[in-house]
C-alpha cells in the first residue's frame, strides 16, 4: 500500500472505473477533464499532522526515551489486534500513546502504516510534547497528558472529493440521503462493537454503490463513540454538502463515504 494519500493501486483502479461508469451515463464529454479530478481529488501527498507545540522536549531527555519506548510498545502491540495504547514514565516526563489501524488492514499493512506514522510525525512535529497524525489507513497520537478514553471531536482533517459546481454532473437526488443513512447505520453497528468500527455499502436509486466507514478509537466508550460519529456525520452533510466523497477525521473518530471501494471487503 502507498501511504502518501492514496489507496492501493487496486482500489484506485476500481475507483476510476466506477467513477467513469458513473459519469458516462450522463455527460460523456466531461469524462476526460473530470477523470483526474475525481481520482486525485483533494488528497495531499502528506497526511495531516497536528503538533502540540506548547513546549518541546530536549534531545536525550527522559521524555524522549519514554516516547521511544511508547512507540516501540505501540508498534509491537498493534500487531495483535490493530490497536494499542501505551503509557510510560513518571510525571512530568510521562508519555501516553495510542495507535489504531483501519480494521480491513492486514497485519503487515498495519505495521507499515504504523512505522510510516511514527517516522513522519517525528519529521513534522520535531520535539513537540504531543502530536497526532492521520495517514489514511492508521491513526497515531501521543501526548504528555492522559488523553486515553477522552472524547475529542476536534477536527484533524477533512478531504472532500468534489463534483459540486461542475454543471451537468449527475448525482441522483437521493445520493446524499443514501450516503447519510449508510453512515448512520454503520455508526449504530460500530459503537457497541469492541473494534468500534464498521465498513459497508449501500445503493442509491441508480444502483450506484456507496462505500462507507464509521470508526472510533477503541478506547472510547460506546456512548462517546456514538456522540463522536453523529457529530461528524452531521458536520459533513451540513458543512460539506454535495460532494461525491468525504473523509472526516477527528481526534476520536473517522467517517468516510466514497463512490469507489476504498477498503478491502474480503478482509472483513
Ligand atoms: C498540549 O500539551 C499540554 C501539556 O504539555 C496540555 O496541557 C495541552 O492541553 C495540550 N494541548 C492539546 C491541544 O492537546
Ligand atoms: C498493547 O500491547 C501489549 C503487548 O505488546 C499488550 O500486552 C496490551 O494488552 C495491549 N494493550 C491494548 C489496549 O491492546
Ligand atoms: C485483503 O484482505 C485479505 C485478507 O486479510 C488479504 O489476504 C489481501 O491481501 C488483502 N488485499 C489487499 C489488496 O490488501
N-end to C-end Cα span: 18 Å
Please mark out the parts with pLDDT under 50 across 5 or more consecutive residues, or reply none: 1-43
| Rg measurement, Å | 19 Å
Number of strands: 10
Quaternary class: single chain
CATH H-level homologous superfamily name of the largest domain: Gnk2 domain, C-X8-C-X2-C motif
Class inferred from helices and paired strands: alpha+beta
| Amount of beta strand | 25-35%
Overall CATH architecture of the largest domain: 2-Layer Sandwich
Protein name: Gnk2-homologous domain-containing protein
Pfam families: Stress-antifung
GO cellular component, one term: extracellular region
Domain Gnk2-homologous: 45-147, 157-262
Break the fold down into its secondary structure elements and pairings.
Elements lengths: L8 H16 L6 H10 L7 E9 L5 H20 L1 E6 L6 E7 L5 H19 L2 E7 L3 E6 L11 E7 L13 H16 L6 E7 L5 E8 L5 H18 L5 E6 L2 E6 L10
Antiparallel strand pairs: 1-4, 2-3, 3-5, 4-5, 6-9, 7-8, 8-10, 9-10
The structure holds 2-acetamido-2-deoxy-beta-D-glucopyranose (3 copies).
One 2-acetamido-2-deoxy-beta-D-glucopyranose binds next to helix 3 and strand 2.
Could you name the key traits of this structure?
268 residues; alpha+beta; Killer Toxin P4, Chain A; 3 domains; 5-stranded antiparallel beta sheet; 6 helices; disordered N terminus; binds 2-acetamido-2-deoxy-beta-D-glucopyranose; Gnk2-homologous domain-containing protein; secreted; transmembrane; GNK2; GNK2_sf
Amino acid at each position: 500500500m502507498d501511504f502518501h494519500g492514496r489507496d492501493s493501486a487496486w482500489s484506485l483502479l476500481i475507483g476510476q472505473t466506477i467513477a467513469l461508469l458513473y459519469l458516462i451515463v450522463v455527460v460523456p464529454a466531461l469524462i476526460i477533464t473530470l477523470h483526474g479530478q475525481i481520482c486525485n481529488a483533494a488528497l495531499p501527498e502528506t497526511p495531516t499532522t497536528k503538533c502540540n507545540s506548547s513546549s518541546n522536549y530536549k534531545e536525550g531527555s527522559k521524555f524522549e526515551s519514554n516516547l521511544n519506548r511508547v512507540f516501540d510498545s505501540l508498534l509491537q502491540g498493534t500487531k495483535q489486534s490493530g490497536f494499542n495504547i501505551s503509557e510510560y514514565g513518571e510525571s512530568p516526563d510521562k508519555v501516553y500513546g495510542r495507535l489504531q489501524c483501519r480494521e480491513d488492514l492486514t497485519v503487515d499493512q498495519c505495521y507499515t502504516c504504523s512505522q510510516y506514522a511514527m517516522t513522519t510525525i517525528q519529521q513534522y512535529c520535531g520535539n513537540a510534547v504531543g502530536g497526532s497524525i492521520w495517514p489514511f489507513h492508521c491513526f497515531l497520537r501521543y501526548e504528555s497528558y492522559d488523553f486515553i478514553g477522552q472524547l475529542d471531536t476536534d477536527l484533524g482533517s477533512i478531504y472532500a472529493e468534489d463534483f459540486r459546481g461542475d454543471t451537468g454532473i449527475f448525482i441522483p437526488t437521493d445520493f446524499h440521503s443514501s450516503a447519510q443513512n449508510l453512515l448512520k447505520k454503520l455508526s449504530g453497528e460500530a459503537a457497541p462493537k469492541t473494534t468500534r468500527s464498521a465498513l459497508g455499502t449501500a445503493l442509491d436509486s441508480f444502483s450506484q454503490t456507496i462505500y462507507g466507514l464509521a470508526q472510533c478509537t477503541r478506547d472510547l466508550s460506546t456512548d462517546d463513540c456514538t456522540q463522536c460519529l453523529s457529530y461528524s456525520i452531521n458536520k459533513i452533510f451540513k458543512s460539506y454538502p454535495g460532494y461525491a466523497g468525504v473523509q472526516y477525521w477527528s481526534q476520536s473518530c473517522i467517517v468516510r463515504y466514497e463512490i469507489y471501494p476504498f477498503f478491502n471487503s474480503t478482509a472483513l
